[in-house]
Amino acid sequence: MQVQVHTDATIQGGDSLETWAKEEINTKLARLKEYVVRVEVFLTGVDALKATGGPGKKCVLETRANGRPPIAVNAEAEKVKDAFNAALEKLRRTVEADLDKVREKHGRESVRGVDDAATGTEG
User: Fold this and answer.
1) What φ, ψ does residue 30 adopt, rounded to 5°?
2) Rg (Cα) of the chain, in Å, rounded?
3) Using one digit for the tens of pLDDT, what is the confidence trace for 8-50?
4) Among 29, 49, 50, 70, whose CB has the most other CB atoms within 10 angstroms?
5) What is the pTM of this model?
């Protein structure tokens, strides 16, 4: 699974933050590694909300999965770690739900697979 970390000028941490984020993603999404191809992490400061007493950091996670449209989630918190962890949990649940839909869809018998002659109807 490829992980890319992007930060703006308000986020401190550099290489250690990038390494930590990659490890967390690989650990928390380990059982989805056959399905998830890439995860992009966007960490930014939210100064407008900070002035009003709201969250100060925002994390957006976007994932690409095999044969599926991209999935993006976000979370805001006072600290980068909290915003990241909240977004990662949202991403895990969302990807698992999407994977369940794909499995359910492919696990059911298709109406197109039913032989019209066997059912006594004609097209």
Assistant:
1) -55, -45
2) 20
3) 988 888 899 999 999 999 999 999 888 899 999 999 988 755 5
4) 29
5) 0.77
